[in-house]
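Here is one chain, start to finish.
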Amino acid sequence: MIRRHLSPGLALTGSFAGRGATEVSAEGCRVTLSDGRTALDFGSYAVTLLGHRHPDVVAAVRGQLDTMPTSTRSLANPTAARAAAHLADYFQQALPKVYFGLNGADSVEVAVKLARLATGRGRIVAVQGGFHGKSLGALALTHSPLYRRGLLGTAVDVVHVPPDDPGAVLREVSGGQVAAVVFEPVQGENGAAVLSVDVLRQWCADAARYGAFTISDEIQCGLRRCGERSLALAAGLPVDAVLVGKPLGGGVVPLSALVCSEELYAPLSADPFLHSATFGGHPLSCAALPAALTAIEEAAEHGRRLTDALDTALDRLVADHGEVIAAIRGRGLLRGIDFTTPAVAGSVVVELAGGGLLVSPCLGRPGTVRLLPPLVSTEADIAEAADILDTAITVAARSAPGEAER
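Its structure:
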């Protein structure tokens, strides 16, 4: 059915990852497959920070399901209003305005639209290696040619700057044509590459000097995934917006948000129908938000201990497999293992699937395997994952042509 009605490629990928089995159920950080096997989920593209079926989030969604599961779109939606207030409070009212979407690209699209309208300018500065979604507007900001092939003539004027050049933004904004500068503090799709805070601080200052907004896309790296509620705000960067998503719905329902300043939000304040979506601010998703953020905060200290355990495990892997591991990137519970070749990385993913560890590949950086442990995992889970990785890398190193001689 998947091959016929969805995509042959999806069918092949799913069969490849599950060794012919499909996902059936999940709880916490473990997934049960149709053949009875279980697997540790250190992937799911950063959605399951709270694991699967977190009881508090499920209870919140179930409660909303029993009262008002969808909105009339004519009457005021108090569930969305409470969620927006909760999210603004979560960021200590540094950015008081909120727009809800269902996926990350929704938030990117509205942020870019508002920046262009609020400034009257058309150009956006994005960063080489960045990923912001695959809808046409968000795709224009995404750097990888893999996703942009055949679609380079998008409606958004975008220039991509090097991630390590402090003067790159100044050169672009000084002409007065730039509406916004958009960056990810940690580029998840780019192998968990961490951008320099000093460079970002300079970019923010230069953008503000010439009247351009700064937007921190933390859809993958925010909400304690990398240790902080917002990496930009925690670093004291004077950003005009933070984009969040992935675990915002608790891993139960889809939800993303633009959290921004009054100035950036001004066009939408003036006309609430300027940008809208039938399911934006959906009651079920918004009911999940307070429960999800509360659970994330309760697990934040545990997340630091998991990070320490992950550091130790990754150091051991580098010591044992330095011939095929080129680098370890990332921060907190978002890590990339960079292998010497894409072939080695691909072989590792194959072996991991058979060994019971689900990870997220980096399509924009095929030599890197991404690890995304949930906050609900344990130090024993980290150790188990490390053992599976150790075995997988050993097998991959033996089978990859030329690697054994490196």
